[in-house]
Design goal:
By secondary structure, the protein is an alpha+beta fold. The chain has two domains: 136 residues, Endonuclease, Chain A (2-Layer Sandwich); 138 residues, no CATH class. It has a seven-stranded mixed β-sheet, sandwiched between helices. It has a two-stranded antiparallel sheet with strand order 8-9. Helix 7 runs antiparallel to helix 10.
Length: 297
């Protein structure tokens, strides 16, 4: 028996009650699908502002649990989508109220049309310190999505083999991860077993931080997967905010962004050259000039 008004297989009903009166709505969930977010957008008042923070990992997109096409629905409402490749929180914020819990923005997670997964959403104050800390971390290390990101991630998902991929055994241990190994073209050689163990030990932490699954069979698919992840999170934010700047200004902006997150870098110039090399290699929209230390895109 369930408590009246709190059906754990229909968490969407409680979420709709929050959304209907929202002047501003923030949605945070790793998995968001068109069928999941549609009822929320229909209930949201037309003048409301909308912020969505999610992740678009190509293997999850290929599996159908995440869908970059939600970008179109959110954009049509004048909202924004930001991406972080390791976000796992599920929270929905409107004014001084928030719901936090386990439910993703999918038809199954919210129980649209039929009883869905057994989930929970609990109301907390939007100014709860833990929630404030979460949102500061996500907003500081997420990258704003654009049409090019939607298309690139859909393309990366289409390149994946038809058999299920085995997830990486390790996960990123920093929300503000940035690449540290150069040159980036070595990553595929390590992944495909074509480099000696001494190099493998240096590159393995990068592959683990990116969450690259086992089973990618071509270098093209591998590069598209890496590029899809780099478009998200802190690296994606840096790519957008530091490109088209002079080298010195890019380094200064990198320092500022890292300082905001308490991320210490010992050699900012070297770090920027590494990041720029990765971005230019894995994200075709960018190209490097001035000896590789400046990005245009």
């Amino acid at each position: 028996m369930t408590q009246q008004g709190f059906d754990p297989q229909r968490c969407g009903e409680r979420l709709l009650a929050l959304v209907r009166d929202a002047e501003a709505l923030t949605v945070v969930a790793p998995f968001i699908t068109v069928s999941g977010i549609g009822p929320l957008l229909s209930a949201l008042p037309g003048e409301s502002t909308l912020e969505v923070i999610t992740r678009w990992r190509p293997d999850e997109v290929a599996a159908g649990v995440s869908d970059p096409r939600v970008f179109d629905l959110v954009s049509q409402r004048g909202g924004t989508v930001a991406l972080h490749p390791v976000v796992h929180a599920k929270t929905y914020i409107s004014g001084t109220r928030a719901l936090v819990g386990s439910a993703n923005v999918t038809a199954n997670g919210l129980g649209w049309n039929r009883p869905g997964a057994v989930e929970i959403l609990v109301e907390v104050a939007a100014e709860d310190p833990a929630l404030v800390s979460l949102m500061a971390a996500l907003r500081g290390t997420s990258a704003t999505a654009m049409e090019a990101d939607r298309d690139a991630i859909l393309a990366a998902a289409a390149m994946l083999p038809p058999v299920p991929l085995r997830a990486s055994a390790e996960a990123a241990d920093r929300i503000d991860w940035l690449p540290t190994y150069r040159p980036p073209e070595v990553l595929w050689k390590v992944y495909s077993g074509k480099r000696e163990e001494s190099v493998v030990e240096l590159v393995r932490p990068e592959l683990a931080a990116l969450g690259v699954p086992a089973g990618l069979t071509t270098e093209e698919a591998f590069d598209k997967y890496i590029g899809a992840i780099l478009r998200q999170g802190f690296a994606g934010r840096i790519a957008r905010e530091c490109s088209n700047l002079t080298t010195m200004k890019a380094i200064q902006r990198l320092i500022e962004l890292c300082d905001e997150m308490g991320h210490t870098i010992d050699d900012p110039a070297d770090s920027w050259e590494t990041i720029a090399a990765w971005i230019a290699y894995f994200l075709p929209r960018y190209r490097s000039v001035s000896g590789g230390s400046r990005l245009i895109g």
